[in-house]
Amino acid sequence: MEKNNKERVTLKDIAERAGVTVNSVSRALRGHKSISEVTKEKVRAIAKELGYIPDAQARLMRGAKLRVIAVVYDNIVNPYYSIMNNHLNNELTKANYRPMVFFESSQDGTLSLEVAREIISMRIVGVITYLVPTKEVIDLFEDHNVPIVLLGRTGDSLGIDSVATNDYRGGKLAGYKLFDLGGKNFSYIGVTRSLNINKERLNGFLKALQNNDVAVPKSNIILNDKRQSTRSLMEELDVKTKKIDSIFCFNDQIAYEVIGYLGDNGIKVPDDINVIGFDNLQSDIIYPIKLTTIDGDKPRAAHLALNILFSKIKNESDTEMTGKIVDVTLVEGKTTKMRK
To answer: Are 309 and 201 contained in the same domain?
Structure first.
């Protein structure tokens, strides 16, 4: 029986072709032990020939959970998330899972109850989130036996599993590097002060300079609490007037935007000013200029996060919290040089 392109192939269609019941087809496609291997192979071959696509909604109505992991983040512009999601997808594919991306529109870096409810309604088996869940969200996932792992931030204070980079040490590495290159007037360009990883990177940076008897004026610390453009942040900093010669940026995305702004204003990197980022995006994407940056071993972070999540999925009674910290390294690029 041939189906035209506008009609969806059903289990009944496969059953008629195979000469078995619809229930047998369903079990064969799920690899049920009650169905012989011969029948399974026959049913699968027919399903492939007819172009059968399983109905996920029907599975949900039967109460089944899908082999799908929710991935939640809030900045679709930052390439970091695309890179990390690619690493997550590679690991998920090996384990026969699939990711489903959820975008959170909140501006404070938190995972909302609204998105959490949407995830649960899809009967997803686990969650990887770059955003901090509220207590209500954590309780909701626990009530529905959906394990959650916080990626990129520590979850100790929340009592949830997490995998984070050593942001404080990364900030220190950037500070020491800029100082060792002969920097005299330092600046930090960051994101909202409510984000803990922003605090960690900034505090590490300031500590490295403090260890070398250097104090950074508050006016040189520019935080983006109002979702401003990097251009407006740089105008607020006023590099030329303050004679800034060293800038550490919260991430590579900001660093590249800073370099673009400086170039537009006749300030050469690294001849006139040193710039360091964080994330090492160039490990996965080719950029016109190689950035000096902090690398947090993204593949390892993805691997660790999913290992923890898979462990919780397999053993729902496992309540022991796991917190992993991924070490960081300085990657030398062409946006820093020894100051004269």
So the answer is: no
